[in-house]
Design brief:
By secondary structure, the chain is α/β, with parallel strands linked by helices. Helices cover 31% and strands 20% of the residues.
């Protein structure tokens, strides 16, 4: 699959279009379809309707190896396979990477995507298990190293998507809002605005 910079990534099933090199934040309540989007992009399950196209190519028409060679993901709970790093950095990896913390496994995923230089990167709360100092460092690395990469950030913490070009709000598998964060926040009737207000209200009550 060849990446052409003048062609967008299109999610027909969700009726939206993501432009090349765009940074998209994907939010929604539990069960809205955020993680399912990543599942169908990697074709862990096949679409039962609609289509997803990247550079004008329907992802269901190409081989899994070709598709996944252009995609990378940093998951919230990464799994490592035993035996994949023999004598590398003098580290042994046990089954599921259990001898690494979740944060360390996420850092290994970050290193992997930096080496692969993919065209589409999916971040599923990629720094959730890291301390704040490491989180800030990784976020800056991702911003500087993936300027020319289309990035889809599946966010469980709404503040992580405020710097994205656009925010996609999902509800029951449908796109209900898709616009710049500032425009969504300027509309007090927007779903994104109400979601963020609810989060801030919880923080103020706890504080």
């Amino acid at each position: 699959m060849r990446y052409q910079e003048d062609l967008p990534l299109v999610l027909n099933q969700l009726s939206c279009c993501v432009r090349p090199r765009e940074k998209i934040g994907i939010v929604g309540r539990t069960g809205s379809g955020k993680s399912s989007l990543g599942v169908v992009l990697f074709r862990l399950v096949e679409c039962c309707g609609g289509s997803i196209t990247i550079d004008g190519v329907d992802i269901s028409d190409i081989g899994l190896a070709d598709l996944r060679s252009k995609l990378s993901i940093i998951p919230q709970d990464p799994v490592l396979f035993s035996g994949t790093l023999p004598l590398k950095l003098d580290s042994e990896v046990v089954e599921n990477g259990e001898n690494f913390s979740v944060g360390e496994r996420q850092l290994l995923c970050v290193a992997r995507v930096l080496l692969r230089q993919c065209k589409v990167l999916i971040l599923d709360e990629a720094t959730a298990a890291m301390d704040s100092e490491t989180d800030a460092l990784v976020q800056e690395t991702l911003r500087s190293s993936f300027q020319h990469c289309t990035t889809l950030t599946i966010a469980h913490r709404l503040h992580t998507v405020l710097n994205c070009h656009r925010v996609m709000v999902l509800n029951q598998g449908q796109v209900v809002e898709f616009d710049e964060p500032s425009k969504l926040l300027a509309n007090e009737n927007s779903r994104f605005c109400s979601m963020l207000a609810a989060v801030e209200n919880k923080i103020s009550v706890r504080g």
